[in-house]
């Protein structure tokens, strides 16, 4: 199976790899997936007082598509408010990276990671956690 | 050095140019049907097949009359298992195999179960070898066949075939081995090993795809299998169908070359493999899968913990290798062979199989070492699991959000 150019680009030059201070109240961390399933994503956001995401970092254990999905997600998150960020849909990622059907779960994982990071931030800052959860497969 | 480098010789091998040369006249000059008994075209084809049959038999210490040509090892596996079951069903209906066998064996056994057979799937020990005591205690008075592979395709471990055959015979069962990965790589002798049926294939030993053989013993005991392909009664009635003459000629040439060059080649390849393995296992948290004493000379299966196999292969883009990772299969399940060694799923996801071959050079191995190390380091820099491991977090105690 050949990868799309965009997947290869994100995989070869991943954007925003790294770690933010997870103990900071400005930072939200989402850790999703499991080693047994072959993919784990950790996505972190740093949010300012206006609820705008000023920085995003990721680290991913997984296949090329999983790495590319999380790299792309960090790019999209920066500059968005947390309310806009939560609207990112996994199918947007599928489309942008031209993921084949067998790799759609990678995009679902990235969406889950975004939501988990936002929720972590919300709970830390006294906001209500979002309950909207995508149907898992 | 040409890129990419082929290190997937357990999947298939490139054809040796000498094999190709031997085959060429049989496509358009000696194109006859080997079963045409009444003209020169048929005789020329038959002569090619006869010579090849001798070469194939000689490589495994058999008589040429004991070789049944097939389309490959999968067909040979099917013919052996279904053919023995059908032929000997009045004696019993029990077959013993093991969980790390190739799918062609496991699925043929499943088929036999549907026909009223019972099959015991032996587990393997942590090193991938069959437990001989467990094998013996699994035999019943209904056992007609024990089928255990010679060398494993994923991890390269070599089963104690001679001992297994002796146990089977002691209890009146036949012994069949799928020796696809072993024949041509290490000495295999059906008489010394006590093998009653043996399957192998040309394309794993620098011959063409689409041709293989089943060895069926003729003496002590005389073994018979019920044909699974009905037709003109070719191959002593056990496998009908016009013979694939160019393929068979190529198979014969491939066997001849292996017989003559195998000893030196095994030494050369095991030195290269050991070099590769030693360099790669110098990296932290990398582990060799399967028994390293009883192993084919050209294979190393290594898990690089905290990186995922498919992602890793993508970073090793100039190397053609394979992985036990789920992402490389349609099933999204990691390798059943690695899991049956007791490997956790995450280690199975992290495995890479390196399969060296006749055309692998030391320069290529050096390049592969360098590329693999670079790729593993790159992916560990991206891996949250590696970071957690480095921070001393016990990953087994983390509550993962499975999806």
UniProtKB/TrEMBL annotation, chain A:
Q: Which organism is it from?
A: Hufsiella arboris
Q: Does the keyword Iron apply?
A: yes
Which biological processes are named by the entry's GO terms? iron-sulfur cluster assembly
- Its name, as the record gives it, is Iron-sulfur cluster assembly scaffold protein IscU
Q: Which InterPro entries match?
A: ISCU, NIF_FeS_clus_asmbl_NifU_N
Name the SUPFAM superfamilies for this protein. SufE/NifU (SSF82649)
Residue ranges annotated for the NIF system FeS cluster assembly NifU N-terminal domain, each copy included = 2-125
Looking up Gene3D superfamilies in the UniProt record yields: 3.90.1010.10
Query: Is-annotated flag, keyword Iron?
Result: yes
Q: Which Pfam families match?
A: NifU_N
List the Gene Ontology MF annotations in alphabetical order: iron ion binding; iron-sulfur cluster binding
Per the entry, what this protein does is:
A scaffold on which IscS assembles Fe-S clusters. It is likely that Fe-S cluster coordination is flexible as the role of this complex is to build and then hand off Fe-S clusters.
Q: Which key words tag this protein in UniProt? A: Iron, Iron-sulfur, Metal-binding
Please report which protein family the annotation says this sequence is part of.
Belongs to the NifU family.
UniProtKB/TrEMBL annotation, chain B:
For whether the record's keyword set contains Iron-sulfur, the answer is yes
Q: Where in the cell is it found?
A: Cytoplasm
Task: Tell me the residues on which N6-(pyridoxal phosphate)lysine occurs.
Answer: 204
Enzyme nomenclature, EC number: 2.8.1.7
Co-factor(s): pyridoxal 5'-phosphate
Whether Metal-binding counts among this entry's keywords is: yes
Q: Where is the Aminotransferase class V domain?
A: 5-367
Q: Which domain of life is it from?
A: Bacteria
- Location (main, coarse): cytoplasm
Q: Which GO terms describe its biological process?
A: [2Fe-2S] cluster assembly
**PROSITE patterns on file:** AA_TRANSFER_CLASS_5
Annotated binding of pyridoxal 5'-phosphate, by residue: 73-74, 153, 181, 201-203, 242
Q: Where is the active site?
A: 327
The metabolic or biological pathway listed in the UniProt record of this protein is:
Cofactor biosynthesis; iron-sulfur cluster biosynthesis
Q: Which GO terms describe its cellular component?
A: L-cysteine desulfurase complex
Q: Name one GO molecular function term.
A: 2 iron, 2 sulfur cluster binding
What keywords does the record list, in alphabetical order?
2Fe-2S, Cytoplasm, Iron, Iron-sulfur, Metal-binding, Pyridoxal phosphate, Transferase
The residues that hold [2Fe-2S] cluster are 327
Q: List the Pfam families hit by this protein, alphabetically.
A: Aminotran_5
Which purpose does this protein serve, as stated in its record?
Master enzyme that delivers sulfur to a number of partners involved in Fe-S cluster assembly, tRNA modification or cofactor biosynthesis. Catalyzes the removal of elemental sulfur atoms from cysteine to produce alanine. Functions as a sulfur delivery protein for Fe-S cluster synthesis onto IscU, an Fe-S scaffold assembly protein, as well as other S acceptor proteins.
Q: How does it assemble?
A: Homodimer. Forms a heterotetramer with IscU, interacts with other sulfur acceptors.
Q: Which family does it belong to?
A: Belongs to the class-V pyridoxal-phosphate-dependent aminotransferase family. NifS/IscS subfamily.
**Name under which the protein is recorded:** Cysteine desulfurase IscS
Q: Which organism is it from?
A: Hufsiella arboris
Which lineage ranks, top first, belong to the organism behind this chain?
Answer: Bacteria, Pseudomonadati, Bacteroidota, Sphingobacteriia, Sphingobacteriales
């Amino acid at each position: 199976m050949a990868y799309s150019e965009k997947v290869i680009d994100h995989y070869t030059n991943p954007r925003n790899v790294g770690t933010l201070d997870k103990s900071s109240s400005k930072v939200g961390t989402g850790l999703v997936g499991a080693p047994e399933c072959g993919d784990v994503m950790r996505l972190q956001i740093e949010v300012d007082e206006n609820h705008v995401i000023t920085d995003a970092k990721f680290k991913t254990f997984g296949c090329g598509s999983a790495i590319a999905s999380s790299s792309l997600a960090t790019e999209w998150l920066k500059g968005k408010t947390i309310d806009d960020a939560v609207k990112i849909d996994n199918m947007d990622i599928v489309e942008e990276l031209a993921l084949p059907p067998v790799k759609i779960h990678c995009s679902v994982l990235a969406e889950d990671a975004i939501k988990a990071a936002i929720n972590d931030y919300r709970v830390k800052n006294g906001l209500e956690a979002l309950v909207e959860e995508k149907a898992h497969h | 050095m040409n890129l990419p480098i082929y290190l997937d010789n357990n999947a298939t091998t490139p054809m040796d140019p000498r094999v190709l040369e031997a085959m060429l006249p049989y496509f358009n000059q000696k194109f006859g049907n080997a079963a045409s008994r009444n003209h020169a075209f048929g005789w020329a084809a038959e002569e090619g097949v006869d010579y090849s049959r001798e070469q194939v038999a000689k490589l495994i210490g058999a008589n040429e009359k004991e070789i049944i040509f097939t389309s490959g090892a999968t067909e040979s596996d099917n013919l052996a298992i279904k053919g023995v079951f059908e032929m000997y069903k009045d004696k019993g209906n029990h077959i013993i195999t093991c969980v790390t066998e190739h799918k062609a064996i496991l699925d043929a056994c499943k088929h036999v179960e549907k026909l009223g057979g019972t099959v015991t799937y032996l587990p393997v020990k942590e090193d991938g070898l069959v437990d001989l005591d467990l094998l013996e205690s699994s035999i019943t008075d209904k056992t007609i066949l024990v089928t255990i592979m010679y060398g494993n395709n994923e991890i390269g471990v070599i089963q104690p075939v001679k001992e297994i055959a002796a146990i089977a015979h002691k209890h009146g069962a036949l012994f069949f081995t799928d020796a696809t990965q072993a024949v041509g790589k290490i000495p295999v002798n059906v008489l010394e090993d006590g093998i009653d049926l043996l399957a192998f294939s040309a394309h794993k030993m620098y011959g063409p795809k689409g041709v293989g053989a089943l060895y069926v013993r003729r003496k002590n005991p005389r073994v018979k299998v019920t044909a699974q392909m009905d037709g003109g009664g070719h191959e002593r009635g056990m496998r009908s169908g016009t013979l694939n003459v160019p393929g068979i000629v190529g198979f014969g040439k491939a066997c001849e070359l292996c017989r003559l060059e195998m000893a030196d080649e095994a030494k050369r390849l095991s030195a290269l493999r050991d070099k590769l393995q030693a360099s790669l296992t110098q990296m932290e948290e990398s582990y060799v899968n399967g028994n390293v004493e009883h192993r084919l000379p050209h294979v190393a299966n290594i898990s690089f913990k905290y990186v995922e196999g498919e992602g890793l292969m993508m970073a090793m883009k100039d190397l053609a290798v394979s992985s036990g990772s789920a992402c490389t299969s349609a099933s999204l399940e990691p390798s059943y062979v690695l899991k049956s060694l007791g490997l956790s799923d995450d280690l199975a996801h992290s495995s890479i199989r390196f399969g060296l071959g006749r055309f692998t050079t030391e320069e290529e191995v050096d390049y592969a070492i360098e590329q693999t190390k670079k790729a593993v380091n790159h992916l560990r820099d991206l891996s949250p699991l590696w970071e957690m491991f480095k921070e001393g977090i016990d990953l087994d105690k983390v509550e993962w959000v499975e999806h």
